[in-house]
Amino acid sequence: MTTIAYKDGVIACDSRITSGSLIVDDNEIKMVKKGDVVFFLAGSTSDYLAFIDAYISGASVDKDSDCAALVIDKGMVYFVSDEEGKLFKCPAKQPYSIGSGSKHAITAMDMGATASEAVKIAMKRDASTGGKVRTYKVAPSLKAH
């Protein structure tokens, strides 16, 4: 899966893609832009496009979909997940994390870690989190550092 963390106007993502216990890639970019909306995606990569299309169009998603995202839409950060075929959208007004290492990351941020530090901490305990950590400032532009 992955670990994506948000805190203090910064989103940090790992770059690992796995299939079961196999590491497929350790240099994947987890950010996808569609028009003016930016998605930071966790879950099954095969569900990403349908998830993005459902968000943009307002359509439902497959009930077996396994996807979540931190979404930047009109300057706001949202947590979005698929629940029973519908998208659940909630403003991320405080530190937030998604993916298989999210519990490690949110605990790290609660203890004072930055978003980037939190993803690095999650890498130590979550086998599906790894590779390079990329950070993105939410405003005014989304460029990897």
- SSE succession: EEEEEEHEEEEHHE
Q: What is the total tally of β strands?
A: 11
CATH architecture group name: 4-Layer Sandwich
Helix content range of the residues, please?
Answer: 10-25%
What does this structure look like?
With 145 residues, the chain is of the alpha+beta class. It has one domain: 4-Layer Sandwich (Glutamine Phosphoribosylpyrophosphate, subunit 1, domain 1), CATH 3.60.20.10. The protein contains 3 helices and 11 strands; from the N terminus they run E-E-E-E-E-E-H-E-E-E-E-H-H-E. The chain has helices spanning 48-57, 102-110, 115-125, and strands spanning 3-7, 10-13, 17-19, 22-25, 31-34, 37-43, 67-73, 76-83, 86-91, 96-99, 134-137. The strands form 3 sheets. The protein has a 5-stranded antiparallel sheet with strand order 5-6-7-8-9, with helices on one face. Strands 10-1-2-11 form a 4-stranded antiparallel sheet, with helices on one face. It has a two-stranded antiparallel ribbon with strand order 3-4.
List keywords for this structure.
single chain; 145 residues; alpha+beta; Glutamine Phosphoribosylpyrophosphate, subunit 1, domain 1; five-stranded antiparallel sheet; four-stranded antiparallel sheet; 11 strands; globular
